Amino acid sequence: MKAKRTSILLDLHPALTNITGEVLQGLTAQPKKLPPKLFYDDRGSQLFESICDLPEYYLTRTEIGILTSSAQEIAALLGPEVLLIEYGSGNSRKIRILLDALKHQAVGYVPIDISRESLADAASLILADYPKLKVAAICADYTQSVALPALPFTYRKPVVFFPGSTIGNFQPHEALAFLKSVAALLQKDGLLLIGVDLKKDARVLNAAYNDAQGVTAEFNLNLLRRLNREFQADFIVDNFRHLAFYNPHRNCIEMHLQSQFAQTVCIGGKKITFSPWETIHTEDSFKYSVDEFTQLASQAGMVPERIWTDPNEWFAVALFQVQ
Ligand SMILES: C[S@@+](CC[C@H](N)C(=O)[O-])C[C@H]1O[C@@H](n2cnc3c(N)ncnc32)[C@H](O)[C@@H]1O
């Protein structure tokens, strides 16, 4: 009987106690804030998948369009025997475009994500669909440094794939620190293929984060449900509302949960008071111009090999090489 192939799953997920400190610190800060990584419990990951298919959420279909039309060119630039390392891999949908174009050029795939169940499911599906590929999934928080484990196979070149404009969720100085850590992991001549959402008409941006079906609102509010379930909080979810708007002074979409009136919430035995209309800042999504992002990457020691955009110039997929 043929042995069933399984992916390696390395679990570096931070313990809940570590995150509890971050949650309490955020909720007692002025203004109140929570880290966006908290969105991604099982339900949050499912809701994000639904967001990707919304008509207003141009990001996913635009990036997929760019990747699909440039896949052969990307495959030629990556060369043979590559190890693909994907940060924030989610359902691993976009890597398939690269794997299909790379054919046997890809020897290994290392998806890294904080959402354990969706990571494990996605890794199993990739393993089933690409029988020759070695898959080693890492459940980790990429805002902490993630070292590559010893892999039981050889490869010529590591390539980091970071799609979805997830880089936009970092403050620009954090994005720089993150890019530097990627450069250190890749080392000289390593490649970064990254998706970056570009500056555009605020009406398009505002619609993308305020969809008519209310899925993004549910994704944002799910964070409170998660705090109730996993952090012994007693938020009444209906007492908060989703708020998302483009802030042109900061070049980002700000996402908040807004208290509808004065209220007190208990979490981990601590009382948190909210004044009317006070918000918890849950996410920023920074938008860049191609030049701004190229400059940021150059400060991290990377030079652009090739940058692709869609015809509207709403989104860029860029290939950088570490110097
Ligand atoms: C915006 S979604 C993008 C998903 C997918 N890459 C795409 O392009 O559609 C962000 C992904 O990063 C993961 N994620 C968010 N914060 C993370 C963190 N601090 N460490 C590891 N993964 C994280 C989420 O679970 C989610 O899968």
Folded structure, characterized:
This protein is of the alpha/beta class. The protein has 2 domains: 115 residues, no CATH class; 179 residues, Rossmann fold (3-Layer(aba) Sandwich). 36% of the residues lie in helices and 28% in strands. The protein is built from 9 helices and 14 strands. The strands form 3 sheets. Strands 1-5-4-3-6-7-14-13 form an 8-stranded mixed sheet, sandwiched between helices. A 4-stranded mixed sheet has the order 2-12-9-8. Strand 10 and strand 11 form a beta hairpin. The radius of gyration is 20 Å and the shape is globular. It binds S-adenosylmethionine. S-adenosylmethionine binds next to helix 2.
Annotation keywords:
14 strands, 2 domains, 323 residues, four-stranded mixed β-sheet, binds S-adenosylmethionine, 9 helices, Rossmann fold, eight-stranded mixed β-sheet, single chain, alpha/beta
